[in-house]
Amino acid sequence: MTNKAAFETLYRTYRTYGMSIAYRMLGTYADAEDIVQDVFAELADKNPAEIHHMKSYIAKSVTNRCLNLLRSARKTREEYIGEWLPEPIAASSELPELAAEQKDTLSYAYLLMLERLSPIERAVFLLREVFKYGYGQIADMTGKTEANCRKILSRAKRQLQGNEQPASPPGTERQRAAVERFADAFLHCDSKALLELLAEDAVLISDGGGVARTAIRPIFGRDRILRLFCSPKAYRDMRIWSRQITELNGETAIVFTDGHGAKAAVCFRFTESGDRLRHVYMIKNPYKLVHLRT
Predict the structure, then answer these.
(1) Which of 229, 246, 242 is nearest to 185 (CA)?
(2) In the β-sheet with 219-220, what is the strand arrangement from edge to edge?
(3) Minimal CA–CA distance to 65: which of 46, 98, 39, 28?
(4) pTM for this predicted structure
(5) Assuming Cys at both sites, which of 76, 96, 99, 124 could form a disulfide with 152, CB separation 3.0 to 4.6 Å?
(6) At which of 37, 64, 79 does a domain end?
């Protein structure tokens, strides 16, 4: 096998795995893609025969690049206008395995939960809890000692205490039906239907990135969300766009388009019973919607 053929085989075999780490680390599809491309560009100059554990090598290379990017992006995140939400990924993307494998760790609620962690906490938590690496391997990947990695994981878990694990409804059909009802109620400003769908302690989180007009701060409580959703002036643009019920991050969601591409995406977190919406995540930042295909 030629060097070129060997590299192409490695790329096909491990690209998705690299993306699965990078996307969870960063919460941004475009940055994850850049990281993985950089890793394979460096790999092209190496002799694969000299790398004894390719999967671990990919994980280490991706993780360290993500750590560097997260540390440099911290100030940018702090200065971000409004709330920051992850870029959604579509089931129709070139990475179907990303949504099929451990899809609960790709949900919006899960990715936002990870935002509570520092970059190194996030790396250790993901490598251990999601990708099941041993402490010795994680120590090698992060440049920490095994004892330090154990402490970091313990600290990360403490950080996440009080933030219950994201709940999903007991079936995709039930989830889809609820989202379809929400879409119709939202379109027609149907306060009665929205009242039945939203949990009393529901939260609306929007991300316009200072580019698209949307709520800058979270809206807490069903009554306040109802007033906003049923206002004749709010969301007038979204009510005239085409909408499609689709799957984002392994869960039923809505994508709004204007004929030229995606203009908004709405993801959800359900109550434990699966019949009410606890969180509504509205993404209108155009830079986070570029790669969505509907």
Answers:
(1) 229
(2) 219-220, 198-207, 277-283, 262-270, 251-257, 242-248
(3) 39
(4) 0.87
(5) 124
(6) 79
